[in-house]
Amino acid sequence: MKKYFPPLAVIIAAFLWSLDGILRQQLYDIPSFLIITLEHAFGAILFLPFLIKGWSQVKMLDQRGWGSMLWISICGGILGTFFYTKALSYINYIDLSVVVLLQKFQPIFAILLASVILKEKLSSRFLLLAGVALVGGYLVTFGVTSMSAWDDRTTIASLLALLAAFSWGSSTVLGKHALTRLPFQVVTSLRLTVTALLAGFVLLASQDITAVTEMTGAQWNSLMLIVASTGAVALFIYYYGLKHLPASHATIYELFWPLSAISIDWFVRGRSMSPAQIAGSVILLTAIVMLTQERQKNNG
After folding, report:
1. Model-level pTM?
2. What are the CB-based long-range contacts (under 8 Å, 24+) for 197-200?
3. Of 50, 72, 83, 296, which cross-links 185 as Cys (Cβ 3.0–4.6 Å)?
4. Cα(14)–Cα(230) distance, rounded to whole angstroms?
């Protein structure tokens, strides 16, 4: 039974991430770097005991190990969110599906980088299933839609979305690299701490820190709930799964996010899934199950 825990952990993390948009609705008028700094700072405090316990291992990190930690802290914790949020700011001018669809290139970047950097072997069957999962993720997210004509704003938004996809996809691979050197608990704590410090420096330079005095009680409650669910805790669960999975597989399990996001929209807001989205959910779940079986067969 334990063999299913790592895939399930990544899927649970993806489900928690799908709740993130709902929880962040209260924070729409707060500067993004203030949110990033506070969220990671509180998460770092929550998991500080792991960092203290594993500090002797952290001190033994070599240059490549620190390079991986800095990469996932900057790209995964700061740049990915920044690029994606910036791309979404163009939705008044372009079709939202352009931005979100291009972000779905994240698994492609992760799979390719896992093959190059981590030397993970990619079987033809795995590549086929990965492609099927991407198709399912697309259908769940968009159903059957057509893209609007591309203009300058679309091009800019598309490039930003691709940068976000690369940032998160590469962070999956470099996170796996860091996990070969440190326990997942220590990686989680160290990543949260480094991201909080770096984002804090940017926040001080931008002088947006004064906005913290204007935060309401409801906003503070939302922030704490994010840390305890879709933020630091989800990251902790995710790194447990990634520790025991190939990076190329983990990034496919993350595609559970669009399925759960559509389902939440269905139950919370009463928006039913279209036939194409239902078909996509079946395709996505089937691919995820078959990928799990593929991994167990390869490890057996």
Report:
1. 0.81
2. 198/73, 198/74, 198/77, 198/78, 199/33, 199/36, 199/37, 199/40, 199/77, 199/78, 200/37, 200/41
3. 50
4. 9
Write out pLDDT tens, residues 209-254.
899 999 999 999 999 999 999 899 999 999 999 999 988 888 888 8
- Contact at 8 Å (CB) between 241 and 269? no
User: What pLDDT, on the 0 to 100 scale, is given for residue 162?
Assistant: 82
Under the banding of pLDDT at 50, 70 and 90, the label for residue 141 is low
Apex 256 CA angle, 253 and 257, nearest 5: 120
Instruction: Say how far residue 209 (Cα) sits from the centre of its chain.
Output: 25
- Integer Cα distance of 205 and 200 in angstroms: 9
Nearest to 205 by CA among 72, 82, 18, 31: 31
On whether the CB atoms of residues 172 and 245 are closer than 8 A, the answer is no
C-alpha 276: how far from its chain's center?
A: 25
Which of 23, 154, 142 is closest to 92 using CA atoms?
154
Q: Give the C-alpha separation, 121 to 104, whole Å.
A: 22
Please, are residues 237 and 48 in contact by the beta-carbon 8 Å criterion? no
Check: CB of residue 136 under 8 Å from CB of residue 45.
no
Q: What is the DSSP string of 194-228?
A: HHHHHHHHHHHHHTGGGGGGG--HHHHHHHHHHHT
> Cα separations (Å) of 261 from 47, 268, 274?
27, 10, 14
> CA 37 → CA 84, 202, 260, 270, 271, distances in Å?
17, 9, 27, 34, 34
